[in-house]
Design brief:
Elements (H helix, E strand, L loop, with lengths): L4 E12 L2 E12 L3 E5 L6 H9 L6 E6 L3 E5 L10 H5 L7 H14 L15 H13 L5 E5 L7 H18 L2 E5 L3 H7 L2 E6 L2 E7 L11 H13 L7
Parallel strand pairs: 3-7, 3-8, 5-6, 6-7
Antiparallel strand pairs: 1-2, 1-4, 8-9
The chain binds adenosine-5'-triphosphate and magnesium ion.
The site of magnesium ion has 2 residues, from helix 1.
């Protein structure tokens, strides 16, 4: 895999028992590219992400990715018995003062400077997700894999979280693969939207729009309609 690439997948097959979920997927993500993955529930989006992350092994095919890789899920997966700053640097071995400094820097990046010392259960859902993003940043990832990271957030918090991910992406230059149910979110954030169906990549849509993007932009609405049509859904108004 070349230096300009973040993900290189060839002939990926993943089956569980007799059920073939992914059937020969080829996928390339360029370094620094933002790719969103959409598709009907159960089509294999999370499976694809988990195989790329190395959480699941492929049944056949090859999977390569740039390192370091960080992964974020819908559930922020914070450890309840550690304060926020400890969660951010969980698993990193370094002197305490150094860890504290590192946590402080990334928490500032996600706008949570005042929350270093609080317990995870006192955070809102959106704040917990931001802590989870801060934790990902400590890895200085070249590739960030996100599986429905905003899925449990209310609409307004979700917009803020999307803007944050977009800003972190622009600042850090890592590649992102974002799995989402939300086609509009995919269009607002991604360079390219991939539609998974029938065990493979059924469609790819390059989102050729300057940033920042507005939900009200008619071109965003047009892309959304195009992708929904690819998913077999017509917008009825
Ligand atoms: N560990 C597993 N063992 C058996 N079957 C599994 C396993 N993981 C996933 N599957 C099956 O693989 C298929 C794809 O699941 P996956 O979680 O990838 O879907 P998804 O596209 O992420 O769906 P959703 O949008 O609902 O999150 C489903 O039929 C699911 O039941
Ligand atoms: Mg899923």
């Amino acid at each position: 895999m070349g230096a300009g690439q973040a993900v290189h997948v060839r002939g990926l097959v993943k089956q569980f028992g007799d059920s073939i979920v992914l059937d020969g997927v080829d996928l390339d993500i360029r370094a620094g590219e933002f790719v969103a993955v959409v598709g009907h529930s159960g089509c294999g989006k999370s499976t694809l992400l988990r195989v790329i992350a190395g959480i699941e092994q492929p049944s056949a095919g090859t999977v390569e990715h740039a390192d370091p890789v960080a992964v974020g899920f819908q559930d922020s997966r914070l450890v309840p018995w550690q304060r926020v700053w400890r969660n951010v640097v969980f698993g990193i071995r370094a002197p305490r003062a150094e860890l504290r400094q590192q946590a402080r820097a990334v928490l500032a990046e996600v706008g949570l400077s005042d929350y270093e010392d609080v317990w995870p259960h006192t955070l809102s859902g959106g704040q917990a997700q931001r802590v989870s993003l801060a934790r990902a940043l400590t890895l200085d990832p070249r590739l960030l894999l996100l599986d429905e990271p905003f899925g449990a957030l209310d609409a307004l918090t979700r917009l803020n979280a999307q803007a944050l991910v977009s800003r972190l992406w622009a600042q850090h230059g890592f590649a992102v693969m974002l799995v989402t149910h939300d086609v509009e979110e995919a269009v607002i954030l991604a360079d390219r939207v991939i539609v998974i169906a029938d065990g493979g990549i059924a469609h790819e849509v390059a989102i050729d729009l300057p940033r920042p993007r507005s939900h009200a932009d008619h071109r965003v609405v047009d892309y959304k309609a195009e992708i929904l049509a690819r998913l077999g859904i017509d917008i009825v108004t």
